Amino acid sequence: SHANTVKLAEKLVDKLDGAEQVFNRPLFHEVVIRLKQPVQDVLRALSAQGIVGGYPLDEDYPELENCLLLCATETKTGTDIETFVDAVERIAGRLQKAAAPVKPKMA
Hints:
Layout: H1 2-15, E1 20-21, E2 31-34, H2 39-48, E3 55-56, E4 67-70, H3 78-99
Antiparallel strand pairs: 1-2, 2-4, 3-4
């Protein structure tokens, strides 16, 4: 539903460092969100938890690298949306830490 998709987009952008809604236009039932992390890694981790995490757009639109097409239908509850956002937040945090450069130790 429109309301659930808007809620999902707002929560992702608010909770995830660097996440942004790509198009600054009114949306209908779907939204494009860009993440700082590689979306394939995020989707793989979500799938391992039994969560369908959206459609990665970069295969069809290379200019939309690290972007997900998302929707939240009328069958999704507020709790479902929170669960999804929390899972993406945890995964993104783990990926961010794993990608952080290691500072060399000086002798």
